[in-house]
Amino acid sequence: MKRFEKITKLISLLEAEETHGEWIIDREHKGTPDDPKQFPFVGYGRVACDLIDMVHECVDDNEDLGVRDYRGVLDSYGLPDEESVLAADISKCDGKCTLAMIVTVVRGDRFCEGLLLSYLENGMMLKWMKRLKEIDAE
After folding, report:
1. Is the dihedral of CA 113, 116, 119, 122 positive or negative?
2. Residue 43 to residue 30: CA distance in whole angstroms
3. What is this structure's pTM?
4. CB atoms < 10 A from the CB of 58, how many?
5. Closest CA to 106 of 63, 54, 39
6. How far apart (Å, rounded) are the C-alpha atoms in residues 107 and 113?
């Protein structure tokens, strides 16, 4: 198995999906102490859920890359914030940097609901996944 295959095998499935998830908003409750509303959240599709799992497995399988400290990795590549990550020339990024970008979004979604969905919808996640596929092919 290639280094990033757990992630890259999902590319065609993500491309085939019409929607990767949807916002679930509680419209049934009043929002009072007696009838509280549930906080809005994203209900991810099956492939997006698989992607989350595969990213974590890929990090575990590639301990030598040291991407558990994904923020530190991106800082070391001169990508300290979201703006610089989005502006990065992905064709020049190696596997460590690219995987750190993906992990940043997957982990960030735990603290910023919908972050992964936005990166799936804007195409950046697929772009990064395709870069990992290129790296595996080299």
Report:
1. negative
2. 22
3. 0.92
4. 21
5. 54
6. 10
Q: What is the pLDDT of residues 34-84, one digit of tens each?
A: 999 999 999 999 999 999 999 999 999 999 999 999 999 999 999 999 999
Dump pLDDT digits (tens) for 80-107: 999 999 999 999 999 999 999 999 999 9
Q: Three-state SS across the chain? A: CCCCHHHHCCHHHHHHCCCCEEEECCCCCCCCCCCCCCCCEEEECHHHHHHHHHHHHHHHHCHHHCHHHHHHHHHHCCCCCHHHHHHCCHHHCCHHHHHHHHHHHHHHCCCCCCHHHHHHHCCHHHHHHHHHHHHHHC
Asked if 24 and 44 count as a contact pair (C-beta separation under 8 A), the reply is no
